[in-house]
Structure formats: C-alpha cells, structure tokens
Write a structure and sequence with these properties.
The complex is a heterodimer of chains A (349) and B (283). Helices cover 34% and strands 23% of the residues of chain A. Chain A has 349 residues and is of the alpha/beta class. Chain A is globular and about 65 Å long. Chain B has 283 residues and is α/β, with parallel strands linked by helices. Chain B has one domain (40-65, 82-260): Rossmann fold. The chains are: A alpha/beta (349), B alpha/beta (283).
Chain lengths: 349, 283
C-alpha cells in the first residue's frame, strides 16, 4: 500500500530559557508512524498529551518555543522533508495539498468578516481561477455539503455551530487536498449534529480520495470514522492498530482503561476512573510514562521506557506487561545527549 | 413528604429582532416538574444546543426571572427572595456547577480564594482556620485536599482537578440542591467518569439532589434516576431514566438515542476490515 505520510522518530519540544534557566517540555517524543493513502488515521489521547503539538509539527505550523529537534516528516506529494522546504514552497503546499479542519470553527472564521472573505483568503490564491469561476466552484462545493450558497454572505455569528463546522469543512476541502488534518472537529457539537458532521467528513474524504489524520479524545467517534487508531499518552505513541482490533482487544493498560470506562446505554456496571493525573511533560516520570497510574507496573517500567514494538502485522504496542517481546528503547540515553547538543545549537542561532 | 423544588408551568420568552419586527421567542415553554426532598435523586435534563437547558438552569438558580409561572423552593416562591440576606440563604441551599471549569474561575485569581469566600459567606466561618478547615473538608469529599489546591492559579490545575474543585466549592455550604450545567462536556473522556461517579456519591452519601443538565445520553443513563427530554423549550418526554432511554417513545428521543455513537459501531463502520479479519482467522 502506498504511504501518504511517514513520520520517523519525530521529536518536537517546547524549549524555553529564561534568565539562564532552561526548561523543556517534551510534547512530542520519538513518534514514528505512517499514514497510508486514502486512509483515516485516528489519534486518541487526553488533553495535554501532545496531540495538538504533534499536529502542528506535521503541518509545519510551529512557532517558537515549540521546535523540532529530530526526526523526519515525509509526504508523498513532496520530494523533500517537510522542514527542508522554504516559506514559499510551504505556502504553495498548504491548502492545495495539505489542509486542516480545526477545533472550534468559530476561531477559524473571522468574526467581523463575511464567510466569503474567508474563502477568498484561504482558497482563492491556490485555485488559479478568476473570481467568477472561483465562486462557481465554491457554490457547487457548498451544495454538496448541504449548505445553501447564502452562507457566503453571512457573518459567522449568524450561523449555528453545526453550520459553522460545515463551513470549516467546506473551506478545508474546496481545493481537494491530498491530505487533511482534522483536530477535534466535532467536540463542541451536540450528538445529533455530531453524527451529521461525521457523515459529511467521511463522504468528502471518500469523494476526494484524500488521506486524513483525525484527532479526538472520544473513542466512540473513532469507532465510526477511523481505519487505524494510534493512542497517545504523555507525548508518546503507546499503541497502534486497526480501530476495530484496538477497541475490541486493547492491549496497553491505558487503552484498556479508556475502552472500559465508556458508559453505554443498557449497561449499569460501575465504571471506575483511573486514579492520578496525567504527568507533566516538563518533568515526565522516568521509564514508562504511564507507570505511576498503571495497575500492572513492574520494576522495569520505572527504569526504561518500552519501545513501540510490532507484535502482529499492523499492531504495535509499548508495554512490558503485554508481551516479553517488548524491549526497552535503546536510544534513550543517546537521544537525550543528541538533544542537548542540538538544543545548544538552536540556542546559539 | 415535602417538595424540595417545584417548577410550575414556567415560561420564559426573549424578544429578538429590531424595534419594528419584534418577535417573542419562547426559550422555555410551559415546563413543570418537581423534586422531593425525602428522596435525593439525580434528575437529568437532556436536550440539544438551543433547547433551553441553560435558561431553565438560570431560572432555578434565581438569576433569571420566569416570564410566567412560578418556581418554588421548599414551598416558597423564589422570586420573593429579595435582599441580600434572603438571597444568601437561598444560595446556601442551591449551588451551581458550570460547564467549563477553566472559564468558571478567574484566571488571575487563586483558586482557593473561591473556596474561602464560599466558606465565609455560606458556612459562616469567620476565622481563617475555620475557612481552611471547611475548604479542606469539602475538598476531601471530592478526593482532593487543600494542600493540592492552596495558592494555585487555575492554569496550574488539570481540567479534572478544577472541575472537582468547583464541585467542592459548591459543597462547602452543604446545599440540598446542586444545579450542574453540562459539568462533564469539557472534561476528557478518561476523567469524565471520575466526575460522574462523584455525583453518584454525593447523592448516596451526602443526600444532595442534583439537576444534571447534559446532552450526553450515555452518562445520563448511567447515573440519573429520572430524565426530562427537551426540544426547543418544550418537554417531549419525561420519566424514569432507564425506561425512557432504553425504550424511547417520542420521535425526538428516538433520534437522540440513534445519534449516540457507540463503540459497537466499529463493526458497521468497517465492514471490510471486519470481513478481512474473519478471512484472516479462517485461513
């Protein structure tokens, strides 16, 4: 199968230095994954586990203090690594090849300008059409998304939450990009609207044939939309596999907890929440980052973090308790040292 | 048996439009229900955005007056509670919890300040030691302690901790009724259950009645005793939670019920991958 995006050992940290005190927040730590063509890859994890930092990094939308310290990001439509491109190439690639549907569509649309101005801002420069033709295309596109062309003359506050979200989807798909990143597109919506919006995203993705990374903490949404699922915890990918396998037979204790804690209609068994809080990414615990909350924690978990190991075709997990095949990641110390060197280099620049 | 809260034929209208094309729009249209004080329960109000859930909550909290109808708390009309002393007495018995904990607390003020102010006004703690003891006591009920919260700003606590602090603040005055307006919709799925279980404990151990406003049918089914389903300001279905949610009658309830996403959808959403799996296991 063709690969649309391949990310290798990606590390991007927030680096801060105030008055000689250096702090690093390891938001994305050593993530390796690949997204196939025409696939929806889901990423799940709680808030502050680094989901959004990861997305920003692969979309080349990072600003200091967030910096990429290592690893590579390769898209199939680019001949080089994402971070080897210059500003102009990036601007050309954005929206045409890579677009995103952001969390909170209210923040995407300019509140003091009509929706048509947003379309002009985002998509017009990439389409090489004159204005008449461009709005012709936009109108036809809006119709496919069950929106009337009159939304173009409305202000964002005149539209309901569901309509705004559909406008944001229209905005992200009007140039028919090869790759779409969706960051919690349905979190602020209520159940009825959420279902419609998901169906719409799925329909659009099938029609354009693009690949997609879909981020949300809601596993029931993933069950409906993602082909494969990656679970993130404290900046690391801890489990990955086809959605159905992960939800039916979760291997990592954290995933098991996530799946078991979901309430369902018709099920009254007590659901327990996990004790403790997610770790601070500025001072993550040594070893496996989940060990302070893990019911199965062993000695080795406290010493070295487990490597994301392929246990079955398409199934990777990072937990010593799951299988003896999972070994400590060898590169921890080396990576730390390299990080130090690179970091001082970045500071010198 | 005394009635804790009774909402009698309450209507609230808002005017929209300009001076000439003024339209009266009923956000709440003739709603009645009552809660008994002898039997603490979790009463869920379910509806989509714009169905008037929050307007109803604000009227029960006495921050918004109904256009028609009366709301009685322990037999007394709450619109009669005028003046600072009466209002404080009412607020001591009825406490709110809001949707987004990071917006409910002022980001520039320390979180413990809210706890101490509540203790001062509602629990009558006039000494600093008394306020700290009251705050610590309430935080213990939600699984936190004053040491964790003291002198912290909202950004220094996680969303789950903040929401639990908000609940602890509501508990300081030992209320008989808590109005929780979408308390878990901004909290992560993994922390959601800790908040929901906490409500269950409050009902069972502290005998607090809770009005739980939500659009999440799954948690409502899990914790509530009775539900009220609202659509555009009207009640479309009401009754015992399990009964209404497992066999809904009104078309709107059926729509809501069908819109819930479930983990079991994974088989329908990926028929090809399921089939591939079967083939793999067969070969």
């Amino acid at each position: 199968m063709d690969v649309a995006l391949s990310v290798q050992n990606l590390r991007s940290y927030y680096l801060m230095g105030y008055f000689g005190i250096e702090r690093e927040v390891r938001a994305v730590d050593d993530i390796t994954l690949s997204v196939k063509k025409k696939e929806i890859y889901g990423i799940a994890g709680e808030s502050s586990c680094g989901k959004s930092s990861f997305i920003k990094t692969i979309a080349a939308a990072i600003r200091p203090p967030l910096r990429v310290l290592g690893g590579s990001i390769k898209y199939n439509f680019l001949d080089r690594d994402l971070y080897d491109l210059d500003e102009k190439a990036l601007a050309d690639m954005r929206w045409k090849h890579l677009s995103y549907i952001l969390q909170g569509s209210m923040n995407v649309l300019n509140p003091v300008r009509r929706v048509r101005e947003s379309f002009k801002d985002f998509a017009f420069p990439h389409m090489q059409l004159d204005q008449m033709q461009f709005f012709d295309v936009v109108n036809r596109h809006l119709e496919r998304l069950h929106l009337s062309p009159s939304v173009l003359t409305a202000f964002p506050h005149e539209l309901s939450g569901g309509m705004r979200q559909r406008v944001a989807i229209a905005l992200a798909t009007v140039c028919r990009p090869e790759f779409i990143i969706a960051d919690e597109p349905t979190t602020a919506l209520d159940v009825v609207v959420q279902k419609d919006v998901l169906a719409l995203i799925l329909e659009m993705q099938r029609e354009i044939g693009s690949s997609m990374i879909f981020v949300t903490h809601d596993l029931t949404v993933h069950a409906n939309i993602s082909n494969r699922l990656g679970i993130m915890y404290a900046g690391r990918l801890i489990e990955e596999g086809p959605t159905r396998d992960i939800l039916r037979e979760p291997m990592h204790p954290y995933t098991q907890h996530l799946v078991a804690s979901l309430p369902r209609i018709g099920d009254l068994t007590p659901k327990n929440a996990l004790s403790g809080a997610p770790p601070s990414l500025a001072e993550p615990p040594p070893g496996c980052r989940f060990h302070p909350r893990c019911p199965l924690a062993m000695d080795i978990c406290r010493q070295a973090h487990p490597e994301l190991t392929t246990l079955a075709p398409d199934r990777r997990v990072a937990c010593y308790a799951v299988s003896p095949l999972v070994k400590p990641a060898a590169d921890t110390a080396a990576a730390r040292k390299a990080t130090k060197a690179e970091k001082s280099a970045t500071f010198l620049q | 048996m005394t009635t804790l809260l009774s909402v009698e034929h309450v209507t609230r209208t808002f005017a929209t439009g300009g001076l000439l094309g003024r339209i009266q729009f009923a956000a709440i249209d003739d709603i009645s229900f009552s809660l008994e004080s002898a039997r603490p329960e979790i009463f869920a109000i379910i509806g989509e955005s714009g169905s008037g859930k929050t307007t109803l909550a604000r009227m029960i909290l006495n921050t918004l007056a109904p256009s028609q109808g009366t709301i009685r708390f322990l037999g007394e009309d709450i619109s009669r509670f005028r003046g600072r002393r009466n209002r404080l007495q009412f607020m001591q018995k009825v406490q709110p919890i809001f949707q987004n904990p990071s917006e409910a607390f002022n980001p520039l003020k320390r979180v413990d300040r809210y706890l101490f102010a509540s203790a001062y006004h509602f629990a009558g703690c006039r000494t600093r030691a008394g306020r700290q003891a009251a705050a610590d006591d309430a935080l213990k009920k939600v699984g936190l302690s004053l040491a964790e919260v003291k002198r912290r700003f909202p950004h220094e606590l996680s969303g789950g901790q903040l929401q639990r602090t908000a609940i602890a603040r509501a508990l300081i005055s030992s209320p008989t009724l808590i109005v929780a307006d979408e308390p878990v919709s901004m909290v992560d799925a993994s922390l959601r259950m800790s908040i929901v279980n906490l409500f269950k404990n409050l009902r069972d151990e502290l005998k607090v009645s809770i009005i739980y406003i939500t659009h999440d049918l799954a948690t409502a089914y899990y914790i509530s005793d009775r539900v009220l389903i609202m659509q555009r300001g009207k009640v479309v279905e009401a009754g015992p939670a399990r009964e209404v949610l497992s066999s809904p009658r009104h078309p709107y309830t059926i729509l809501l019920r069908e819109s819930i996403l479930s983990l079991d959808d994974v088989d329908n959403a990926h028929p090809d991958s399921a089939a591939r799996e079967d083939k793999k296991t067969a070969s």
